Amino acid sequence: MGKTRKAAKAVEKADRKATHKAAEHRNEPVVKAAGFLAEIGDQPQLVATSIGTVVIGLIARRPDVIRGGVRMLAAHAAATFVKSAIKASIDRTRPEKAIEDGGGRFEPGHTHDHDQNSFPSGHTAGAVAVARAVSRDIDGAGGPAALITGAIAAAQPANGKHYLSDLVVGAAVGWIAEALVSAVFDRLAPVVEGAVAKEAPLLIEHRAG
Fold first, then answer.
1. Measured over all CA atoms, what is the biggest interatomic distance in the chain, rounded to whole angstroms?
2. What is the reported pTM?
3. In this predicted model, what pLDDT tens digit does every residue of 45-82 receive, in sequence order?
4. C-alpha pair distances (Å), 92 with each of 89, 117, 121, 163
5. Does residue 181 contact residue 61 with C-beta atoms inside 8 Å?
6. If I label 79, which of 13, 45, 121, 133 is the partner at 20 to 30 A Cα–Cα?
7. DSSP labels, 39-78
8. CA distances from residue 134 to 55, 109, 111, 138, 141 in whole angstroms, order as listed
């Protein structure tokens, strides 16, 4: 037990050192701009993107796009639920705050203070879940989605928002949540897809009329 705890402390120390090093240039305009663009990985933006995908699928009469958008929404919801549960039980000071204060917390807790909710990365969890979901249904979307997700994750330590371990756990949450959702989704999709494919053209024609 002592060796395990010692190893965990060593990993945490290395994680903190590497992240604080990455955040040294967080106030530079280019880094701030990257962080601003990375906000595409925030919850409202990902939900809007998922809904927009469904709308595009309905307009284009593309069942695969409709299915992809619905899967994105479901995967994001699952990832958000899990990461929120973890954040509600663990307090961790965000790197930027820890650097400013000269120290930080990483322990069980229930604070709602944004500066103490670094673990895990919600942006990464949501982005990974959505990227995995869209890659299953929409041809050609997987590559760009993966690149965007990588950029979203990479911007977090550089801007002092998250530790590297926050990203790792966030990515794992997103990956597992999407996998579980898709395991259920793929059993239901044929039925849902058939109903949508039948009703969508009638809905569009009705609105056009």
1. 73
2. 0.88
3. 999 999 999 999 999 999 999 999 999 999 999 999 99
4. 10, 6, 11, 10
5. no
6. 13
7. GGGSHHHHHHHHHHHHHHHHHHT-HHHHHHHHHHHHHHHH
8. 14, 35, 34, 6, 6
CA distance 84 to 82: 5
| pLDDT of 202 over the 60 cut | no
Tell me how far apart the alpha carbons of residues 141 and 109 are, in angstroms, rounded to a whole number: 39
Report whether 169 contacts 119 (CB < 8 A): yes
Residues written for the chain: 209
In sequence order, what are the residues at sequence separation of 6 or more whose Cβ sits closer than 8 angstroms to the Cβ of residue 190? none
